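So, could you explain this one?
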Amino acid sequence: LASRRPSFTTPIPCPDGFPVTVTSSTYDPILRRLISAHKERQALALTSFLADRLALSVHGLLAREPYAVRTSRIVLVPIPSAASKVRRRGFDATAAMARLAARRLRVRYPVTVRSELTQGRRVADQAGLGATARQENLSGAFRLRRPISTGAVVLVDDLVTTGSSLTEAAR
C-alpha cells in the first residue's frame, strides 16, 4: 500500500459537480480495513500512515493544479462526520489526518486546516447505500460555518466511493 502512487479519480457514474480529486490509492480490501480500523476502532497508530498518504495526494493535486500553489494559502477542509459518531469514536478521524498531513505539507506549501463545514441536518449512514441514494441522503446536508475568503480550498475525506460527499461539500 505504501508504494502506491496517488492518482486523479472520478467515480463512475460521476455526480454533477464532482470536484477535481486525487486519491492515495484504489479503494481495496486492505485500505478498507485500515480506514475502518482507524475510524471505528481508534487504531490511532494508523493516523500517521494515513496522513502521509493524504499529504502525497494533496501534493499530487497541487503539482497538477498550479493555480492553487500561487494563492496566499491552501486550506484543507475535512468533510465532517456526524457529531454523534465523533463523540462515540472519541475523535474525528478525517480531521486528525488533515492536521497531521498539513504539518507535513508545510515544508513546501502555506497550508492550514479549517473545519469550516458542518452537518446542517441529520443524514442516514452511507454504508450500503448506492450512488443515487447517497446523493439524495447528502443533498443539502453540509453548510459552511463561515466563508473561506482567501486561498485554495482542498476538501479532505477518508475515502471516495460514489463521490456524493465530496460533491455535496464542494457545493
